[in-house]
Amino acid sequence: MTRHQRSLSLSVLAILLSFMTPRFDHAQTVLATVRGTVTDQQGATVPQAVVTAREMTTNLKRTSTTQQDGQYLLSNLPPRQYEGAASAPWLLTW
Questions:
Q1: Would 48 be classed as within a structural domain?
Q2: Residue 49 lies in a domain
Q3: Region 62-83: what's the mean pLDDT?
Q4: Is residue 80 within 8 Å of residue 53, measured between CB atoms?
Q5: Residue 68 domain flag
């Protein structure tokens, strides 16, 4: 095998190995998004309500405040078991 052939073989091998190496720059993360609408007993939407998702094993809480139409969004939640609650202090004063 000549020096030129050996150099070419090593170049081809290097190119092939570069395609075979695993790539981690496109790793996927599994996260959840919870969205909904808070309504009262009559079915009216509740603006400015605080929505809380409490992770059951760690007790960590994530909160969101509802918009004027009662909608909320909790995003980037790891897949776990959660307990949900909503409260609106101005409703409790009636």
A1: yes
A2: yes
A3: 92
A4: no
A5: yes
Quote the number of domains for the chain.
1
**How many residues are given for the chain?**
94
Interval 2-51: pLDDT, tens: 554 445 555 555 555 555 556 555 556 789 899 999 988 888 889 999 99
Q: What pLDDT is attached to residue 21?
A: 52
Tell me whether residue 85 is in a domain: no
Long-range contacts of 43-52 (CB under 8 A, 24+ apart): 45/69, 45/70, 45/71, 46/70, 46/86, 46/88, 46/91, 48/88, 48/90, 49/86, 49/87, 49/88, 49/91, 50/86, 50/87, 50/88, 51/84, 51/85, 51/86, 52/84, 52/85, 52/86, 52/87
pLDDT attached to residue 24: 58
Question: Distance of alpha carbon 73 from its chain centroid, rounded?
Answer: 11
Q: Which domain holds residue 58?
A: 30-80
